[in-house]
Amino acid sequence: MQVAEVVSSSRLTPRRLTLRHSRRAFSFLLAGILSATPALAQSSADFFLHGAGATANPPTLFLDRTAPTDTTAKFKDSTSINFSGGNPWKEVGTWPADPALTAGTLSALSDLHVWLGLKNSDDQGTNYDLQAEVYKNSTLVSSGLTRCITGVTRNPALAKEALVAFSSFPPTDFNGTSDQLSLKILTRIGTNPDNTKCPGHNNAVGLRVYFDATTRQARFGTTFGAATSGPLTQARAGHSATLLPSGNVLLAGGGGPAGVLNTAELFDPVTLSATALPNTLTTPRTEHTATLLPQTETLLIAGQDSLGLLFSTEMFNPGAQTFRELSPNVQVLRSGHTATLLLDGRVLVTGGQNAGALSSAEGFNAQTVVIFKPAYDPEAGTFTLLPNGLLTPRWDHTATVLADGRVLITGGRNGTGVLASAELFDPATETFTALSGQLTIPRAGHTATLLPDGRVLLLGGDGGGGIALPTAEVFTPSTGTFS
Fold this sequence. Notes:
Layout: E1 3-6, E2 15-18, H1 22-35, E3 42-52, E4 60-64, E5 74-77, E6 81-82, E7 90-96, E8 104-109, E9 112-118, E10 128-136, E11 139-149, E12 160-164, E13 172-174, E14 181-189, E15 203-204, E16 207-211, E17 219-225, E18 240-243, E19 249-252, E20 255-256, E21 259-260, E22 264-268, E23 273-276, E24 289-292, E25 298-301, E26 313-317, E27 322-325, E28 338-341, E29 347-350, E30 361-365, E31 368-370, E32 373-375, E33 382-385, E34 398-401, E35 407-410, E36 422-426, E37 431-434, E38 447-450, E39 456-459, E40 472-476, E41 481-482
Antiparallel strand pairs: 1-2, 3-4, 3-17, 5-16, 6-15, 7-14, 8-13, 8-17, 9-12, 9-16, 10-11, 10-14, 18-19, 19-22, 20-21, 22-23, 24-25, 25-26, 26-27, 28-29, 29-30, 30-33, 31-32, 34-35, 35-36, 36-37, 38-39, 39-40, 40-41
């Protein structure tokens, strides 16, 4: 691991510091530089059709990026179809995807692959049309039609593979939170291009679609890029991004082509444009944290500059759009830490890295109470090193406030590799407790999002060796387990 000698400064004394994964930081910096141009980074991957529950017509259908592992295929049946009455389309099923899997701009769809069979052997000789439709919420994005599919049988072992090609469409943005991509499959009696009936029966009990098995990998491909928007005012990586009450996003610091930045900008999600702030940070910093406080100001903590790690903290005022240095500093040099707003208004700072992964935790008290009236005085705030630190030193981890006020700490790195351990912080006792259940896979640099039902969704990250993970898991507070 690469090390650097740090020169003396007003903030630091000479010491040897371990740098945060230089190659990884460089790749992030390069990604940040590229993101400052209008070009989109494209990523292509398949969505697989899955079902949860019974093999026959499972009640829950969904899409994800994981290939099927079962040897027995599930199937979904349409209702009866009849050429008379205008040969109406009948739905086979609709498969939705988790919005978190579709953040970005959908720019292309590749062919849908499915396997077809008969519900009833008496329908042998019936030919079918198959239509596939991809939606963003309730809006049709693209569709495709394959006509007059022949050779469909009742024998599952002889299921007929069918392909549907999607039509072209304009790039479509998905926000990754509430925008849902879904696939709908429909069928009717087979037709010619002029919509006259092709040879075969006039009606059928229905069509069966097989999916979710190693030999029946029903799927279609998608290509996503970064959400279309105007470029940033400056290339940056390792910066902080904080959603402000105004709806704008504060981007502060980070690393650029010329070094660590002291600049900041506001991104407007409505106009998809960024505006440089005239006032700079009090100190250039990267790999820091930025926490929105209840009083709407943003607290920036530690990180590192071109000389090394920082003690310093500062506050951003959204009204004046200015940064000011705070007199209270963190008790321990750190970067790659977390800074989490607790329900009582304090900020919990955990872990991070100086010469190695840190187990220390400290709290910043940004709120005082005078005769039952809360008064905000950030300059009077203090960082207090808690007597009970993390049970496992870690950095590049996550810290998520649960519905009951406790904080879930997951994954991260230490001196030997990527972690699968997790622990809970109780603000009332200011103690950490190890969870008996571990993550299903070690993760660092992942995300952890509190869901409306109180569970926490963990997505992606680095599983070790710089290998990005395509997997997800959920933490259930009532059982203390990951699945």
